[in-house]
């Protein structure tokens, strides 16, 4: 959580890789101890074809692809057992187990609080109805790292705190094609020395605080960390933090669609370095801020963006080029509203 800003407008809820694909060539064993939590189906050899057809495929773009910190890109649970969970108990069990797992979330799962996700997990929604409601996922604890994690094709609603929190030095994370709305605090926070993250093709809506990057103005341990790519996300009527950045350099904000964001689009503070590139801002009075609230100014380079019914962006200083880390192409920003509206969110990939 973060303090020092406008309270959230919604009331608190009450319980209410790059070189590998996420296909598992052989599925072995029962996926853990004999007494696995109820609500879990474990893939067996005879079910291999069906499971492979159901598993999400693809690889990330951006910082999650970078070979660093002893990790070659982001592969999640590839190579581990494939399990399907339908209950909170089973989900909590498998996301917290040691070792690689491909965890398929089927249907609506009501959880409480934040479930700790540890290293080498792919958490993939099945079809169009996978949902985690009432709580959220926290990647890593102070003693159990949440590195090399993929979260795709899941709807997050009504979280009591954050919907997704990437924290405690988690690195190599890919958050892709999710739908996030109507929680209590942040929809997607990345903080506390986390690094090498890609946030892509997500739909953020019906919420105020969308995507925080950097814990607080006083948490200077984030300097030199928090390298994140945000691309092809739909910030749909959310108020602020798309993202709101402290200390990180570089952050790449690429080909996102901003529509009707009441407070601002992107804010760079506390000497963060943010490249805002190829985005489409529609009816956003303050598309880019340099400094925000009590936080000192950051640095922003903006290029090739479209501003329709929007204000003038603030810019300052220079930023490390993302191309020094990974290759990428930029879509024509004029195509972004149609492309992102059609492609962001759940049910848009083969899960």
UniProtKB/TrEMBL annotation:
- Compartment annotation: Secreted
| Signal sequence bounds | 1-36
On the tree of life, the source organism's domain of life is Bacteria
> What residue stretches are annotated with the Pectate lyase domain?
78-287
A Pfam family per the record: Pectate_lyase_4
Is Disulfide bond among the key words of this record? no
Task: Name the family the entry cites.
Answer: Belongs to the polysaccharide lyase 1 family.
Q: What is this protein called?
A: Polysaccharide lyase family 1 protein
């Amino acid at each position: 959580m973060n303090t020092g800003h406008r309270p959230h407008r919604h009331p608190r809820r009450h319980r209410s890789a790059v070189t590998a694909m996420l296909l598992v060539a052989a599925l072995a064993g029962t996926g853990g101890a004999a007494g696995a939590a109820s609500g879990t189906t474990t893939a067996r050899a005879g079910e291999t074809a069906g499971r492979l057809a159901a598993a999400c495929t693809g690889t990330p773009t951006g910082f999650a692809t970078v070979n660093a910190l002893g990790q070659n890109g982001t592969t999640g649970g590839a190579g581990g057992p494939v399990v399907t969970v339908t209950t909170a108990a089973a989900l909590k069990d498998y996301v917290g187990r040691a070792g690689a797992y491909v965890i398929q979330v089927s249907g609506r799962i009501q959880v409480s609080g934040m479930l700790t996700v540890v290293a080498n997990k792919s958490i993939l929604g099945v079809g169009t109805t996978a949902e985690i409601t009432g709580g959220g996922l926290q990647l890593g604890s102070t003693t159990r790292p949440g590195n090399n994690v993929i979260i795709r094709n899941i709807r997050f609603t009504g979280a009591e705190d954050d919907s997704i929190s990437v924290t405690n030095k988690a690195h190599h994370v890919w958050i892709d094609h999710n739908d996030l709305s109507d929680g209590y605090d942040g929809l997607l926070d990345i903080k506390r020395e986390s690094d090498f993250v890609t946030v892509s093709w997500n739909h953020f809506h019906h919420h105020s605080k969308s995507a925080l990057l950097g814990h607080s103005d006083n948490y200077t341990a984030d300097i030199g960390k928090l390298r994140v790519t945000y691309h092809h996300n739909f910030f749909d009527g959310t108020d602020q933090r798309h993202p709101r950045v402290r200390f990180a350099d570089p952050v790449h904000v690429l080909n996102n669609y901003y529509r009707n964001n009441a407070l601002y689009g992107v804010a760079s503070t506390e000497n963060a370095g943010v490249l805002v590139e190829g985005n489409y801002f529609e009816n956003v009075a303050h598309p880019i801020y340099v400094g925000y609230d009590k936080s000192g100014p950051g640095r922003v380079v903006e290029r090739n963006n479209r501003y329709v019914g929007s204000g003038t962006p603030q810019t300052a200083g220079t930023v490390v080029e993302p191309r020094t880390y990974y290759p990428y192409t930029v879509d024509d920003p004029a195509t972004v509203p149609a492309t992102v509206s059609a492609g962001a969110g759940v049910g848009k990939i083969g899960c």
